[in-house]
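Title: Prediction job returns without error message
Component: structure pipeline
Severity: low
Priority: P3
Assignee: unassigned

Description:
Job completed but the reporter wants confirmation the result is attached to the right record. Sequence as submitted:
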Amino acid sequence: MRQTIGVAAAITMIGALFGAPVSEAAFFSFPMALKHQVDRIAFSTPTLPPMAHTLFCARYRADCENQGGDFRRRNIALTLDRWNELNVINREVNRDIVPQPNMGGVATEQWIIAPTAGDCNDYAVTKRHALLARGWPSRALLLSEVIVPSGEHHLVLLVRTKDVDLVLDNLTQSIRPLTLAAHLYRWVRVQSPHNPKYWTSVTVPGAVRMVSLSN
């Protein structure tokens, strides 16, 4: 039987990833915004997917289908096995793809799984593909378009679990809980958990920057 990571244990491991000793991270209190999900990104209205994602779905059809589709179980537990899988995939993909910016702009953008060299889009779809192959449900793996402080549009992978939502980003080896990563981005649109082909816009209530994804 898989052992579910408790809230305190999850924060301990996440804290360790940020460089804090485990003994020190163990004293971190669980953020209230995550524990009670008071401040959170809310799915807003359906929106057009990125054109590159539409082309991606024509090329990689299986990655744009519902997988693991028991939608009565909307949240999956973050077990030790799953946590290890996330770390392995995040680090392997970040290591194996050589960074190569797309100099042609949106008109020439292609999202490719496991290229030898690529940009943020290729990292994100490769991580999602690898996790789908390991049995993760598609509803838990959402490609997310954000804007970084430089004004550049950027693609990350949002992983939704029962107790914490996580961000996998090629710009860091660390897996960040959403409440710690949210202030780094301006959120634009996210894949729908109900159908990977569809995307929705998102809203952040008020001026709150530390947020957790809505269930």
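Comment from assignee: result matches the submitted record. The chain has one domain: 32-203.
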